[in-house]
Amino acid sequence: MMQSKLKSVPPKPTPGAQTGAEKPSVNRRPVLQVEGVDKVYANGTVALKGADMTVREGEFVSLLGPSGCGKSTLLRIMAGLGDVSAGQMRWWEQGYDVVGDTGRKLAFVFQNATLMPWARVRKNVRLPLDLDHSSRPDDVEKSIDEALSMVGLSQFQHAFPRELSGGMQMRASIARALTTQPNLLLMDEPFGALDEMTRNKLNDDVLALWQARNWTVVFVTHSVYEAVYLSNRVVVMAARPGRIVDEITIDQPYPRLPDFRVSTEFAGYCRQVSQALERASALGEEASI
Amino acid sequence: MKQPLIKSERFVQIAAPLGVGVLFLLFWEIMVIALDMPRYILPGPSAIGASLFADWPTLFRSLMITVQITLLAFAISVVLGVLISLVFIQSRWIEISLFPYAVLMQVTPVVAIAPLIIIWVDDTTWALTICAVIIAIFPVISNTTLGLRSVDPNLLSLFRMYRTSRWQELIRLRIPSALPYFFGGLRISSGLALIGAVVAEFVAGTGGARAGLAYLILQSGFTLRIPRMFAALLLIALTGIVLFALMVWLSDRVLRNWHESALKVEH
Ligand SMILES: Nc1ncnc2c1ncn2[C@@H]1O[C@H](COP(=O)(O)OP(=O)(O)O)[C@@H](O)[C@H]1O
Ligand SMILES: [Mg+2]
């Protein structure tokens, strides 16, 4: 049974009581399926142990956990960067090879803007289109214009990255991800280095784009507030070995306006997620003793 | 906008060393006169200036030969050095196997190899050029290789994610990333090419029509024409400064749009 996402009366958060059957997203097609994935780096670090999770079409999922718990590792595996040591990773119920050739496009946003310092903003933004001809839309220039205006950088397209503030560089990085018109967006602590005002603004921007574009988003963060504000679902991870220990559904309607940040529901979810995170951190501490 | 000249950073940067130089020359001239120094031991700046003027045709001919060898060696070092770097980055194995030989070439004093090269290579100009290349090529190889490897790993991931070919990766990512390092290598290499050209000529001792500045210094020593020796020395130093300034100018021009931090690495 499909429920509207825009429920007028949000239910009270009830810790630990998630029966997936009621959630609207559960009938949708899985985009990412992580099945029993282990990742052991060459130096012996067990970055992931038995990770299991599914991300369905249109979901906004956050990965939350203490630093070093394998969030980036998991996200990179989701992007097809680096092999898994055990288990498997499926994209759209298929192997990785299919991605890119069938209109299933993923985009990745890193913690720092990762722009080419020698290229102007516009050239940076068009990079994916220059590299991957299969993902070229019919009208390249128009799609770049659109991406730039979506992040509000149209006037700065001829600037060099160093001429932009940190927040604007991050926007350029997001615009670069948008040019290919992706349907899966992977973001690794994209706003971690920004001040809170900029971060809140960009959070709202990403949410608006997510709704407008019907993306699937996996968002790595170490901020409880950010995770609760943005996501349908928060996946909590623990360290040593990196693993998934909890999952909290944020059953709140979209669009989530800044008011949501000061609502009692928001506070309730934040407490619930914080507790889960504390338990996860405690697990990690135990393991390291 | 108008500020006193003395407060302008640029003015001070030029005027201060210039002032020191003038004072030094004055002191030199005065000491030579005061101590009644013989010219064949230490000529004063005025005597050197006079020689520069009087011996100009000889000096200029030698200068052109030294400059020619220097530029030829520098050009070969750049082209060959870049090609070797491109080979090095193809695989760790190639680099691991060959790099020690590049170091070996670098650490062996060129004066020790020069006699061999002069025996093997008939044409003196080429023999000297090869010696200079042996000295000048190493900074190009090591800096360019380092630059081609020091790519932002996240950018590299991005390129991999879009399944970019190695060629595209080289053109769009590695070469631009390497440019600041490459220019750093050029600066060092240009100076070394000149040193190589001079040192090799000392060893070769070529005379006649193909005599460069080094030979002129040797010959002036034998004949005790010390002012001419100083004049030749001055020309070598000036050539080095001009080369260096040229490289700084070139790299500033090309890297103007680079991130400041990337530029600072080299200064
Ligand atoms: N390339 C690598 N080689 C070896 N160990 C790594 C590598 N990348 C990450 N690690 C280790 O794996 C663990 C998880 O790292 P990461 O996924 O970056 O965590 P997070 O993003 O949650 O902070 C950490 O202990 C980290 O030191
Ligand atoms: Mg990380």
From TrEMBL, chain A:
InterPro entries named among the record's database cross-references: AAA+_ATPase, ABC_transporter-like_ATP-bd, ABC_transporter-like_CS, ABC_transporter_ATP-bind, P-loop_NTPase
Stored PROSITE patterns: ABC_TRANSPORTER_1, ABC_TRANSPORTER_2
Domain of life: Bacteria
Region Disordered, residue ranges: 1-29
Domain ABC transporter: 32-266
SMART domains: AAA
Protein keywords: ATP-binding, Nucleotide-binding, Transport
GO molecular function (one): ATP binding
UniProt cross-references to SUPFAM superfamilies, sorted A to Z: P-loop containing nucleoside triphosphate hydrolases
Coiled-coil parts of chain: none
One Pfam family recorded for the sequence: ABC_tran
UniProt record similarity statement: Belongs to the ABC transporter superfamily.
UniProt name for this protein: ABC transporter ATP-binding protein
UniProtKB/TrEMBL annotation, chain B:
Domain annotation ABC transmembrane type-1: ranges: 63-247
Protein family per UniProt: Belongs to the binding-protein-dependent transport system permease family.
Keyword Isomerase attached: no
Its membrane topology: Multi-pass membrane protein
Stored CDD domains: TM_PBP2
InterPro entries linked: MetI-like (IPR000515), MetI-like_sf (IPR035906)
Compartment(s): Cell membrane
Entry keyword set: Cell membrane, Membrane, Transmembrane, Transmembrane helix, Transport
Main location: membrane
One GO biological process term: transmembrane transport
Record protein name field: ABC transporter permease
A Pfam match: BPD_transp_1
Top-level taxon: Bacteria
Keyword S-adenosyl-L-methionine: no
